[in-house]
Amino acid sequence: MASEQEILSGLAEIVNEETGLPTDSVLADKSFTDDLDIDSLSMMTIVVNAEEKFSVRIPDEDVKNLRTVGDAVAYISQAQG
């Protein structure tokens, strides 16, 4: 099971691969849409990659609740537990 810091780091790598954003700009308090300018298509790719990387399932209806990077970290952390 990954720690929250490992999840954050892993998500930053996934976001970087999808968007080209530097990993150090992917912080827990950043909004996927407002701060990182991630559209819904990119978000779905990020979710799929996160599911694979962390061996979790993130149902589509839950994705809309993942507004910030921190929301996603907490969700993945809980889903692993």
Please characterize this protein's 3D structure.
- The chain is mostly helical and 81 residues long.
- It has a single domain, classed as Non-ribosomal Peptide Synthetase Peptidyl Carrier Protein, Chain A (Orthogonal Bundle).
- Helices cover 58% and strands 0% of the residues.
- The chain is built from 4 helices and no strands.
- The chain has helices spanning 4-19, 40-54, 60-63, 69-80.
- The longest helix has 16 residues, at 4-19.
- The N and C termini lie close together (8 Å).
- The mean pLDDT is 97.
Mean pLDDT: 97
In percent terms, what proportion of residues is strand?
Answer: under 5%
Helical run tally: 4
Task: Compute the CA-based radius of gyration.
Answer: 11 Å
CATH topology name, in short, is: Non-ribosomal Peptide Synthetase Peptidyl Carrier Protein, Chain A
Write the CATH homologous superfamily: ACP-like
Unreliable spans are: none
Highest-level CATH class = Mainly Alpha
What is the CA-CA span between the terminal residues? Answer: 8 Å
Note the overall shape.
Answer: globular
Main pleated-sheet profile: none
Q: What number of structural domains do the residues give?
A: 1
What class, by secondary structure content? mainly alpha
Percent range of helical residues: 55-70%
Looking at the overall shape, the CATH architecture is Orthogonal Bundle
Let me know the number of strands: 0
What string gives the helices and strands in order?
A: HHHH
Family: Belongs to the acyl carrier protein (ACP) family.
Function: Carrier of the growing fatty acid chain in fatty acid biosynthesis.
Keywords: Cytoplasm, Fatty acid biosynthesis, Fatty acid metabolism, Lipid biosynthesis, Lipid metabolism, Phosphopantetheine, Phosphoprotein
Pfam families: PP-binding
